[in-house]
Amino acid sequence: MPRTAIPPCVASTDPNRRFTVAEREAVQSLMQVRRDMRHFSAGTQIADDVRARLQSALLAAPSVGLMQPLRVLRITAPALRDRLAAAVDAERMRTAQAMGSRAAEFLALKVEGVRECAELWALVLAPDDGTLFGRRTLASEMAWCSAGAAVQNLWLAARAENLGLGWVSLFEPVDLRRLLALPEGAAPLGLLCIGPVDRFYETPMLIQQQWRQARPVSAVFTENGWDPSWNTDTSAITEQPLHG
After folding, report:
1. pLDDT, tens only, 114-165
2. Are strands 164-168 and 119-125 parallel, antiparallel or unpaired?
3. What are the tens digits of pLDDT across the range 224-237?
4. pLDDT grade for 213, boundaries at 50, 70 and 90
5. Side-by-side strand order, sheet with 187-195
6. What value does the mean pLDDT take over residues 97-117?
């Protein structure tokens, strides 16, 4: 299928442009203040030009073999949004049941904003198109990585527009396949909640709520080989009590 790139919605597209120190610091700041948002200002909208910039950012992401496997369904029908929200609610309860003694603590968390967000986008991985370049040995994994890179671009672009974004994965894939009438081979990856927020979290919400702690650089990077301590280190992923 012939492809044509959409016009970039940015001021400069010079590939040889040299960025200033201030611009570099702005990018670093943007990454540090990006948040997975769950609280949105209800009854708001996103302007068409802003939406176009978000779409452009998503399509500018790196993609293995330029396969661009991600497809996005913008949900504008209220009845469909309600059905998707109900599917999320059902999985939220199943997840709470799986938490055992921590079920009540989990249910106290705000985990999504499907009903309140200004825009709801459904992320779908397209059926395999036969791309081999860069993914012959890791076909599905590289498609997922390409989709994740696109979402990260979108996340940063949304934050630069002072919009919140939350990636909701609380649903049974079979439910979304049915609700979205997806073809054979297509896989739902999430529901993206996008829109204005009253305020951004000071720190990622799960850290703020003492549910989970992030790993420091020293727990992620090593040189030339696997760090044996990684075999037993659970300090970063242990789910802490919500209330100390």
Report:
1. 999 999 999 999 888 777 777 777 778 888 889 999 999 999 999 999 999 9
2. unpaired
3. 999 888 887 665 44
4. confident
5. 70-75, 119-125, 187-195, 164-168
6. 91
The span from the CA of 108 to the CA of 175, in Å, is: 24
Amino acid code (one letter) for 90? A
Following DSSP, what letter does each residue of the chain receive, concatenated? ----PPPP-SS---TTPPPPHHHHHHHHHHHHH--B-----TT----HHHHHHHHHHHHTS--GGG---EEEEEE--HHHHHHHHHHHHHHHHHHHHHTGGGHHHHHHS----TTT-SEEEEEEEPPP----TTTSSSHHHHHHHHHHHHHHHHHHHHHHTT-EEEEE--S-HHHHHHHTTPPTT-EEEEEEEEE--S---SS-HHHHTTS--PPPGGGT--SSS--GGGGT--TTT----S--
Q: Name 116's Cβ contacts closer than 8 Å, sequence gap at least 6.
A: 39, 40, 41, 42, 193, 195
The length of the chain is 244
Q: Which residue has the tokens 């400069």?
A: 12
pTM for this model (two decimals): 0.85
C-beta separation of 57 from 13 below 8 A = no
**Which tokens go with 158?**
């949304």
Whole-angstrom distance between the N-terminal and C-terminal Cα of the chain? Answer: 56
Q: How confident is the model at residue 97 (pLDDT cuts 50, 70, 90)?
A: very high
Cα–Cα distance between 218 and 70 in angstroms, integer? 33
